[in-house]
Amino acid sequence: MPPALSILVPTYNRHRTLREAVASALAQTVADVEVVVCDDASTDATPAAAAELTAADPRVRYLRHPRNLGIAGNWRAAIAAAAAPFFCLLHDDDALEPTFANRLLAPLSADPSLVLSFCDHWVMGPEGRRLPAETDATTRRFGRADLPPGRVADFAAVGLVRHAIPVGAAVFRRSAVDPASIPDEASGAADMWLVYQCVRSGLGAWYVPDRLMNYRSHAGGMSASAPLAMSCGHVFRYERMLVDPAMAAIHPVVRERLAEARVDRALALVEAGRGAEARRASVAAFRGRPGRRSLAAVGLALVGPLGCHALRRWRRRP
Predict the structure, then answer these.
(1) What pTM did the predictor assign?
(2) pLDDT band per the 50, 70, 90 thresholds, residue 317
(3) Which residues are paired to 95 by β-bridges?
(4) Which of 185, 146, 144 is nearest to 166 (CA)?
(5) Do 247 and 282 belong together in one domain?
(6) Nearest alpha carbon to residue 44 among 92, 6, 76
(7) Is 221 part of a structural domain of the chain?
(8) Domains held by the chain: number
(9) Residue 33 and residue 12: Cα distance in Å, rounded?
(10) Which residue range(s) make up the domain with 239?
């Protein structure tokens, strides 16, 4: 018989935190789980760590790509490998609470009209210590503080406007998620792209307000280490959502978010030192949304390497 839940752990060069993530997956009160570690051609000690994990528990499977596929490619491979009717995506530096699977599988098992269930989460620092103030602020920031438990009334608004659904704290119905629907262009925003695809499925979502996952905040995270990839991913998804008739109710918000994301992309191109692209992107961003940030992007792009240096210093400010 297939397991009840596939806990998918896409990983790349994080062998130290990988062990903790997998240990939390294996500690679930639902014992009938499989843990699939999907290694995107790591160059560190990940293969050795994975060998230890698979030897210690037969529920752990290890898949390694011969070449780096990027976030979207690794997620596609991981989802395709899931043997259970439900899956979750556990980041290789996060950790699940023991009752995560039990609490989030229950509504999905009881109601076939649901595509996902999700919960709130803790924020922890780089060393793994929980940060209560940051956790409460994050819960408020993403609109979960006042979100009623149970079936979500407006899936599109909650998932795509408030961004209240953390993919790492959600369980998905495997039959409703096509791995091929996650394109490489969405890599920097693969989490929100997956939520978008779930909204488009026509099925519903369920919220459990307890904090059943621990999210690690550190300088190696996507928002800090890969601003260009993230901004490009968001521009891609907003552009697609803006021409999707199924998203018509939230098009005014999407239009605003797209303008912001284009400014973010222009600034990220400046920081990356990609002068010609930065100039084109910043001018287009200013035309789409005249304002201080877009004007600053134009100015930084025009002064070339000096603008790149200035932006990097600005981002590093305390």
Answers:
(1) 0.90
(2) very low
(3) 214
(4) 144
(5) yes
(6) 92
(7) no
(8) 2
(9) 22
(10) 226-315
